[in-house]
Each structure stands twice: as C-alpha cells, then as structure tokens.
Fold this protein.
Amino acid sequence: MSITFKEVEHTYSVDTPFAYHALKGVNLDIKKGSMTALIGHTGSGKSTLIQHINALLLPTSGQVQIEDVLITATDKPSSLKSLRKKAGLVFQFPEYQLFEETILKDIIFGPKNFGVSEEEAIKIAKDMIQLVGLDESYLERSPFDLSGGQKRRIAIAGILAMNPDILILDEPTAGLDPQGAKEMLQLFKKVNQEGKTVVLVSHDMNQVLEYCDDVVVMNHGRVEKHVTVAELFKETEYLTSLSIDLPIITSFILELNKNGFHIDPSIKDINVLVQEIGGQLNE
Amino acid sequence: MEKIIEVKHLSFGYDEDILTIDDISFQIQKGSYTTILGHNGSGKSTIAKLLMGLLEKKSGDIIVGGIPLSEETLSQVRNQMGIVFQNPDNQFIGSTVRDDIAFGLENNCVDPALMDDIINEYAKKVNMYEFLDHEPTKLSGGQKQRVAIAGILAMSPSIIILDEATSMLDPRGKNEINALVHQLNKDKNMTILSITHDIEEAALSDYVILLSDGHVVDEGKPEDVLMKKDEIERLSLDIPFAYKVSEGLQKLGISITNQIDREKLVKELCQLHSKK
Amino acid sequence: MNNMMFGKYIPIDSFIHRLDPRLKIGSLLLLLIAVFFDAGFLGYALLGIFVIIMALLSHIKVSQILKAIKPMLFMMAFLMIFNLLFIQQGNLLVSIGFIKIYDQAVLQTLYIFIRLILIIVMTTILTATTKPLDLTLGIEHLLSPFKRIGFPTHEVAMMISIALRFIPTLLEETQRIMKAQASRGVEFSEGSLKEKILSIVSLIIPLFISAFQRAEDLANAMESRNYNPEAKRTRYKQLIWKISDTISFACVIMICSVLVIMSFVL
C-alpha cells in the first residue's frame, strides 16, 4: 500500500469555542501506482485528508502511513520533511505559489530545498518544462508574464521536479477551458502510468470516470466508500442522495435504458457507446 | 424582436499595438439568453468589462437600451446592467449579506427607509433570506454568487452579465446559479449574457457568439454554430456530447437528425427503438 | 489564528451592544484620557468598578477578557521590569548587587500595570460589543466635521470597512500560501538567515500578487454597482441616538470629571 490511514481523527482548534471535527475515524488504503479520485462536497473533509498525506496536518489521533513513514499525533513536523518530497501536493489554483523572477528559478526552488544540487535541478527543470507542454525558451522568462493556464503548468512542473512518489492534486483543472483541462489530465495520467500514485480531488465526475481507477467518497468527515469507478457510478441512488451529478455519458445511458435500451452503464468511451446504440437499433 | 445591446466595430487593446478586441460587432436581443463562447484568452472577459464601461474602448460603439455608452452616460448605461464576476470572494463588498445587497442601493441614493423591504425581497428571491446576517467567510461560493445576483436584482436592471460566474463553483453551486439564472430569464424576461467556455451551457441558450483571438468567428442559433465540428475543435472547445453521439450514429448508417440537446436526442433514439 | 480574542466582535445581545457606536467610541476616548490622570488608588478603584460594571453589562465572559489580555502579557512584563529597575526614587526596598528596587518604583509600576489592564479591557469591550461596520460608521460620523476642511471622511471609512472585510480572507490566503510553500520544502521556522529571508519572500510575493488581483476585481465589482466615491450616497445603516445613549454618556462624563478633579485635589 502506498497510503494508509488508520482510525484517523482530526479536529481543528482543539479546546476552543471554534473547534471543528473535520475527520472522523478515517480508514483508508490507497494502492501504490493507482489513480484515485477523492470526491465529496465542499466541507466534507477532502482538503483536510490530503494535507495529512504530506504531513502539513498531523492527526489528532490515529495514524497515517505513507510508504515507509509513519505519522502519528506526536511526531514533530521537522522529522517529516522527507514526506513533503515523497508526496507532492498541488493546491487549488497553484499559480499563486509562483514567486521567483524566472520560471527556471521557480521550478528548481522545490528540488533545491530538498538538497538537490543546482546543476542537477536545472537538468530536471528542462525535462519538466517539456513534460508540462512548454519548451525550454520559457525558462528564462518571468512567470508573471504568462497566461493563467501556463502559470499553472509551471507551478505543477515545480512540484513534479521534486520527483515525488505520490502526486496529490486539489481541483487541478478549476477555471481552465476544456482543452486546457484535457491536456492537464492527460499529463497526470501519463505521470501515473510511469509509476506514480496519483490522488485527484475533483468535482467533475466526467473526469473521474475517464481518468481514474478508484474513487474515495467523503461525506461529513468520513470515508463513506472506496470502490472502483465503475462500481461507484452504479450506485445512482446513493450519488443522488449526496447530490453528486452522474457523468454525462452515464446519465445518458440510464435515460436510454429507461426507455427500452439495454446498454451497460459502465461504458466510458463515447465510441463504444455509439457502437452499442447502433447495434441495438440495427438488431 | 427588439435589440437591447448593440456593439458596432468595437476595438480595444491593453497595449498600444496589440488589439485584444479587434473590430467586433454583434447584437443581443431583449429577453434572450445569449452566450459568448471562447477559450481562455479569447478576449471574452474583456468584452464584459467594455460593456460595463470598466475599460475604455479604443474605437467603435456600445449602445445599451438605445443609449450610446460614453463618459456622460456611464451611470445610465450601468443602471441597465448588472454583472457577476468569476471570483465569489472578490465581489462581496459588505460585511454581511444584508450590507452587501444594500451597497448598490446606497450608491443609487435609495431612501434608507425603503432599503429593508428591497433587501428582504431580493434575498428571498435568491433563497438567501435566512442568511441575511451571515458574514461572507461563512458562505459557500454558490451562496456568495447568489448574494451578488440579489445585489444586482435590487438595482432592477434589465440585463445580467455572467462573466464565468460559475467556473469557480462546485457542481452544487453551479446548478444553483444556473437554475436561478434560467428562472430569471424565463419568468422576469431578464436578458442574460453569459460569458463561458461551457459548451453544454451554450447548447441550451438562445444565441451563441463564438469568439477567438478578439474576433467574432461565428454567431447564430446554437444548433447552427455548435455543429461546425472543425471550427469548434480549432477553437480548443469541446463538441456537445449529443452531437458526438448523433454524428457517430449517422456514420453507422442510422438515420437520425444531428442534435446538440441531449434530451431531444434521447427522445429521438427511443422513438427509433420502439418503432423497431 | 482563530484564538485571537483581541479586537474580535462577539455576536450576542446586551445593553452595551445596543448603545450607539458614536457614544462608545467617544466614551472610550474620554476614558483613555482619564486613565492617565493620576487620581491615586482611590481613583483607579472607582474606574475599575466602572469598567467591571460595563463588562458585566456587556455579557462578555471573563475568560474572553482574559484571552484578550494574554497576548499583551509579554509586552506588559517587559515594560514593568524596565520600570522597576530604572525608577530610582523614594526609599530603597531591595538591593541585590547592582539591582536596586525603590518603593516609588513599585508604586509606579503598579500604576502602569493597572492602566494597561484598564485600557485593554475597555478597548476589548468596545470591539467586542460593536460590529466592525458600526465602528466604521461611528468613526465616519465623528470625523464628519473635518469634511469641511477637505478631509476625505467617506473614503477613509470605506477603506476601513473594506480592510475589515478582507482581513479574514487574507489570513486564510496567507495560511494557504504557507502550506503551498511548505509542500515545496520551505520551513518557515527553521534554517539560516538567508533561508529564512527566502522563505518570507516566497510568502510575501504571492500574497501581494493575490491582494492586488483582489483589489482590481473588487474595484471592478464596486464600479459595476455604480459606486463613485465623489458622488452622494445614502447609507443603509442609520445611527439613532437614544435616551439610553444620553444617560450613558452623562455617566461617562461624570466619572471622567470626578477622576480629573481627584487628580488635582489629591
């Protein structure tokens, strides 16, 4: 297992009138090398959960194991710096974390903090900028001259340059146009296929269906489900009760099935769907 | 049909020599739900700011409700329009919902004795009446955008501009805002101008203006514009789901009309299926 | 950061909460001046009782007041030790090596302690019982006589209220950026001076960029809603001066006068 949570509780501002119980008895095993979606409403505890993976937050009780590192309530954050490298966390709107005068300097900032030599870091930066779909000519430019979408690629390159084993992404496509979002998700899929564990927080069920293997559903601070994507979208009543929309393709299939068609609702490829409808109409 | 916004040969550039908006003309009909569709950086948000008089045009004319926009007519033009921006946090001015709705009324010198009734009325309309004394930090993105809409409605405009107003919201927030806006369009005959890159939203609107690199590339009814597959793909936009399916089925030799509306497609497919 | 009690509004209902913000700000100013008149222990006892009555009337919990004092304790301790050692008047009480403490020093340090506590408690009562917006409105009204000499009263009030509105948002943002940079290996509490400077830079620059972005968005939103700082506007919140305000103000003036007289007589 890559990420394991055992009876993890987290309460913000313990012993104050503002105390907030954000995680309640969370048990979770995320497989090494999987691409796992984390879904649930705003306030369901998703963002608290992902911050435990790189020890930005420590559990109030219970334990978190990230590969060979064990995190408990008493572990001091300084002994956990290696975790920040092991689990790269990309926050929502990561373009706001850029601050260096050139893109190169910003990308090598992370690796250098983890003790990579400048030379080595520059080499990595050159690879990363290409990985995120830009070219080396960008390295000497200021990150602040770029468009919003490009800035976000640079910020993500900065995290990938740390060469984390686990990549955690909080709504990485928020605000991007369809083409930009698609390219970004294909990048994460590629990174995942190269062996990294990817945890993707997303509100867009179409993305979850198309790109992820497993899905974790959070509700009121608890992990309610951890199933494969295909299994999740079978539970339409459960999803409706959480007012989570089905992927467009799934709800389309269900509509057709209500009216006499018999199509497998776990189809995620539109071409397969077209073949299937065609087949049933030509029978 | 009566036109409510008329844009003629409008040009604008943030820099001297680069035109972000290059000789654009279009009209918007009163009571319509119009979408301006384009990828990030196509200039679509700049158009919204030009319409509101927040940016100064380089050349061309903007005419709203018969009044040409100029420095003298600025407040007359702005009084006809309200705009909801992308970031819910950065447009919440008051320290509570109540104060935020009051902000526009104060600017328009409404008698304070009348304000409570107006605030209550529009807070109810957007379902935020129970939250009147809440601070913005205690509200969700969707709730904040609903407050923004209430603030606009309180000033009784005839046009609402949505500048990617739902792009930072979660699905629940998105659905809330979309439902509210469609209801305003239908019941109150409010003209809606939605600036977006959501093709499925555009598919359900009355009129689509397709924008790329500061030019109007195409405009018309969604079923005409959105079925031009090559053009849409070239503009880094997505093809409507229903069109992908209906087009694929045609290639298989099934006689079906091209569709951008999923509901209509489902209906047609089911008819075919039951005839069989 | 949620533990900061000083300056925080406590949303309950009480006699003090309902008083006019103009009265509360004005009274605080008068009382702050009165604190610095040396009216002896009797005077401070009188003022202390008055403040306790105000605190009781405002329904603020003792624990909340203590929390407001807590962050100031370090500064107070520093000030008091400084005083204790450097005032060399009156009779020598203790002498250990070069440390000499005189009875006058003890007395004056005690005065300073009492003054500071009174100031903090009184200010806390004001901010805890008055919504930030009402506070701004009160300040705007109190400053309005200066409008005639060209002082931008309205703009200042608008600036304060926007600042108050955005403080929580920017605090949240600060935490978010700190966490984002921590995820890139920044340790804000450790490292050499050079590393520390770099880590602060990695926080400040993004924070400024985001604040400017917010400012631009906010300006657009305000302008779109017909805001014009030079134009006349009406105000939704109206301040109404009530009988209870007049009576309260009379009490404050009485207390202050007594203190001033005592300071001259005693």
